[in-house]
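Hi team, as promised in this morning's meeting, here are the two structures we talked about. I've kept the exact order from the run log so nobody has to guess. The first one is mostly here for context; it's the second one we should focus on when we meet again. Sequence first, then the predicted structure tokens.
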Amino acid sequence: MNNLLINWLHTGPKTQQVISFNHHDIVTGQLFISHVAHLHAQLTASPLKRWLLTAETSDLFAAGMCAALLAGKQVVLPANIQEGTLTELNHTFDGIIADQPLSEAKQFILLKKELGLAPQSWPQADKLGELVLFTSGSSGLPKAIKKSIEQLDTEVSILEQTFAARLPQCSVISTVSHQHIYGLLFKILWPLAASRPFLSDLVEYPETLSYYIALMPNLCLVSSPAQLSRLPEALEFEQQQMAPSLIFSSGGPLSYDAAQHIHTCYGQLPIEVFGSTETGGIAYRRQLEVDRTWLPFSPLTIAADAEDGALLLKSPYLPCATEWLKCDDKIELQTDGRFRLLQRLDRIVKVEEKRLSLAHMESLLCAHPFVEEAAVIQLTEPRVMLGAAMTLSTAGLEQLSQHGKLSLNNQLKKHLLSQFERVTLPRRWRYPNALPTNSQGKRIHTDLLAVFNED
């Protein structure tokens, strides 16, 4: 089952298979082949090498990506198409492949439904291109992560080896964007390589999810912790007659309670995948009990740094599979090869000239029975201080209702004093109904700042 993706890119899909679908349309292999060939001809006619790719629907995105890779181009995937994001990335691409005009200064190839194209053959490639994704660097600015097709092929092949037996003739639907590594792998690359149809649209509402689950007997749901945490409430915490065959979650931590609520509704626990844009998938788990350990994917080698306990990784998904990569997560290695995630080691700030870990403070707050989730950020106005935003447990909500915010603040401060000096404690406290996240379940700094601006 090796070279699953590379072999598929060289041969293309079968003409009669279903590539993608939505509630009113399907894309067959022949339509997809013709569209890819049409775009490939435009790309090979251009000397430009670096092409930014973006599209709202996954069928158009997949066609543009395949055409560019087969043309040997570098495919640049922005996290979003906000004006500021494109300005920051402007130096990283020469042309644009998109479903809407984004820049008058760059060569542009339009992605649209091409229904009138004559049947064509799948383009042949001497050398496949590469992908470039972006993650937040230590400075907060986008950091380019190059992914060769060989790296992505290895990961796709291992995903198929690990999970294929649980995916009988499944179609794939997703609540996460294909512009990020998780959605790219689980919604586009893996389904294409394994000949599984995928939903071209993004699932944004529980009603849409229920519609497709009722319509299709075997369905794989690709989602995020933020979305899965909200889903049981929309389903009224009731057992559903129809359920996905498999549920994946990635992009952040999924709480034990949320995993159990999903089990109540769908009769199964989500498979959580831990990894990053840089590393790809590292390990996976199902939360059979509280604080369930993580099982590394089979070809990866895991160790813990002797000094700070940081996760050390050797992986065929990395540019050099034989070198150790030190990650920013502290782990506790188990004798059976599994590991427990403890906390992030980065996000170090200075408060009153004292260095502290925001991740450590968040972890300690989450250990309090009043707190479900916590986010701590450094504020600069009217002066440098910490702000803490938390969603509360049932006990925490009762405490807030009966005794007020000041009493709750003081109890949480007392809890933090067990490990932090008083001068470093948060000065501003907020208790929103939910912490703001994007569609990938990631916390966005500017959105968190807005929580503290609502005085």
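And here is the second protein, the one for discussion:
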Amino acid sequence: RGGVPERAAVAGAYRAVADLLAAAGGDTYDERRQDVTQSLNTSYDLVLARRTRDHGRNPTLVRLLAQLNAVIPVVEAAPAAHQRGRPLPEAIPAVVRALADAVEQGRTDLPCPELPRPATPTERAVDDALRHAATVVREADPDPYNVDDRLGRPAALRIRIRRTARGALLSEASWRYGLRLALCIGIAQALVSLVVVDRSYWIALTVTFVLKPDFGSVFSRAVARGLGTAAGLVVAAAVLAEVPRGWWDVPVMMVLAALIPAFTAKGYAFQTAAITPVILLLSDLLNRQGIGLIRPRLVDSLIGCAIALIVGYLLWPESWHTRIGDRLAESVDAAARYVELAFGRDGDQVERVRSRRRLYRDLSAVRSEFQRALTEPPPTGTRAAAWWPLVVAVERIADATTAARVR
């Protein structure tokens, strides 16, 4: 399956761009643009990470990187098309989707794209970008020395290792997080050593899941996990009480397990509610305790949530005083630099494109940080809600600058 994940990622970026062009002039344009940013981030991360290991001479990765770079002018033309206020012809998104299929299948036998004749500067920009992308997709063997990967080339491996080690060993935030986690686990283990608790390992597991740093707000996760566990135990109690042991466990487990991915998309509380009955049914297969598993699971989970909330959150002010203001200020500065590059007389084309990609990537991270902050209790949640319109405004400034540059 060598190269399949990378091809799928690049094809996904093309499809996201097709959806963006289809949404131009409509109300869903902003959502589609965010999808494009995320898809481009994922694609560049995959392709460039693989290319550093292959020393940049793997023909498949060279071709994928060339195809990924070729879609950037189409992305830049999209804001200008959106600002026209009317939809693009259906043939234009269809051409991009056909290119996506060719990228995913590794085909180069594509006919020349049939596009409507452009009549305005914006339409000419879209037409030129699409024809350039089609030419690159149809090219079987791009010149590896003519593929510009400065849009996001990772640093050398030794540099990334050094940065990672420095971040882990010298970062104050990393040490504070490690101390918080160690303190919470230590208190959990001390508690179960002094008080008899059934299945005490559930307390430490709950603390670890709630404090996991990439899950968002510790406060909201602790509350959501407590509520989700309680809801899941209601379902588990009904199943353990009414479903006889034996082969009936198989269809019940199939139904409950199928609910996990569906509920995960709705939030952490829903995910916990879906996973809890599955875990309890698997535990019951081993120890045959039945309803007796309900109370220990509820008590242990609530104790773990309380430890994480009090010791791992309330006692550490920096955990609920986020840097949303600093992150947003940095994005505003990045937008200013992009405006300077876009309209400067001596602006480097590659540097301008790199600046735009960097700005949208930063804005994607800022949006995620704000969405996490919105789940925090006041004053952090209130401040994030007040500053949220500025995040949207910076994104629109970037779009307007790109559209003006294209025109």
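Starting points for discussion:
The first helix runs from residue 4 to 23.
The chain has three domains: 4-154, 172-320, 324-406.
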